[in-house]
Amino acid sequence: MSVVNGKAYRLLQTVNVRWSGKKFENIPLDLKETGLTFKMQLYSLTEVLPERQKIMVKGGILKDETDLSKLGISEGHTFMMMGTAEELPKEPVQKPVFLEDMTDEQLAEATNIPGGLVNLGNTCYMNASLQCLKAIPELSNALINFNFNSQIDADVRKTLTVSLRDLFNNLSKTVESSNPLIFLNVLRLVNPQFSQQSRGQFMQQDAEECWSCIVNVLKEYLKSGETNFVNRHMSLELVSTYFFTSFFTSLTNQENADEAPTTTNEVVDKLNCHISGNVNYINDGLNESMIEVIEKTSPSLGRQCSYSKKTLINRLPKYLTLNMLRFYWKPAERVKAKILRKVKFPLVLDMYEYCTDALKMKMEPNREAIRKYENEVKLRGKNADVSDLKLELSEFDDVGSNTTGFYELTAVLTHIGRSADSGHYIGWTKDQSSDKWWKFDDDKVSPATSDDILKLDGGGDWHTAYLLIYKAKSFS
């Protein structure tokens, strides 16, 4: 029963609808549903699309989101509906090919739905990592060209690379879910941590650790297909070329001004984003990661001192991976607990402010060209023809680097749950030919929107971004 204004109503009523001189009687109406559900019922009766229907209710027109239980509808109520049915489609000139008659490859091409991965028992951490890696075309292309001779090569790490090649190849040719058992078995040989069991069941693992394991293996074997600028005969290693960020780091002793600062260069495959009580946006977390205070032994004082550590980027890769540091170790519970704080991230990210002056100067001509182009487009107006405008950006000698500092989000790996050793991981990737996104929940694949992606910023027990993969923004 539902109570509205002190009156009780049954949650299942039968109602009538008058439309275009016709009356449809005894239509079952579930008051637990919304207006859109009712409109879909009427569509099946009248062939009037839901968006064309105007149904009169108390207070105006029935909306899609209206809670039917709030309308006070009685048994036998008659609705008035307006709207015209859609014209029946004409018979196609070309005979259709039915889905059941297509091969797997034809289905994959026709539907454009990517394939999922079967969960083999707490393997969502691996499945989500693999789907995000597959969103990087340079990696997939390099895997296609990867050669392996099982009679000569007995290296299990090389075997992991070839099993990834075969898995990605299978995913590209079918809309069915693929079984990653071979890859999983090799992964557990490469890193026995992923073989841990509890009560006879394989344990959940950390997706970031899985991502790093796979990337480090690929670094050893995959070539990019590009050649070194200095040595045209030397093929570049793919992961370093497209994934690695280079830092310039300086350490200054805060307790001894006479101690000379020390500088180092560091290369990493991802950037860390700290999450503290002051972090609300991803830029806040990056700022805390780039400027921090650490404790280390002072060579001048011979004791532990506080050092100011400042990090600046002197090389940006085409693909920038950001690791949201959401997990920390709780010794009492012996578990990696999770920081649930909401941290917003953008679809387009500008890394210019985190770069060295030298890299800023190198990128500035391209950034100025982009500013002029965008200003001219804006001046001409929204629907103006801009085909005569040309945006020419200079290339760097550094193959696989970002020449502007601008990035656009291309994949997100999320976690839902309270600890890294439990919960569930999901991969979200941007379609390469449209603005559509895909959600990979193991073998369940479904479309998503940019708005859905921006809701992955945390703040509760919803899917929360853990790894963010940004791609150098294209201006062509």
TrEMBL record:
Task: Give the record's GO biological process terms.
Answer: proteasome-mediated ubiquitin-dependent protein catabolic process; protein deubiquitination; regulation of proteasomal protein catabolic process
* Keyword set, alphabetical order: Hydrolase, Protease, Thiol protease, Ubl conjugation pathway
A Pfam family hit? UCH
Kind of enzyme, top EC level?
hydrolase
Q: Which domain of life is it from?
A: Eukaryota
Q: Where in the numbering of this chain does the Ubiquitin-like domain appear?
A: 13-82
Q: What catalytic activity does the UniProt entry give for this protein?
A: Thiol-dependent hydrolysis of ester, thioester, amide, peptide and isopeptide bonds formed by the C-terminal Gly of ubiquitin (a 76-residue protein attached to proteins as an intracellular targeting signal)
Q: Which Gene Ontology MF annotations are present?
A: cysteine-type deubiquitinase activity; proteasome binding
List each copy of the USP domain by range: 115-473
The record's annotation in CDD domains points to:
Peptidase_C19A (cd02657), Ubl_USP14_like (cd16104)
Q: What is its EC number?
A: 3.4.19.12
Family statement drawn from the similarity comment of this UniProt entry: Belongs to the peptidase C19 family.
List, alphabetically, the PANTHER family matched: UBIQUITIN CARBOXYL-TERMINAL HYDROLASE (PTHR43982), UBIQUITIN CARBOXYL-TERMINAL HYDROLASE 14 (PTHR43982:SF1)
Q: Please state what the protein is called.
A: Ubiquitin carboxyl-terminal hydrolase
Q: What is the lineage of its organism?
A: Eukaryota, Fungi, Fungi incertae sedis, Cryptomycota, Cryptomycota incertae sedis
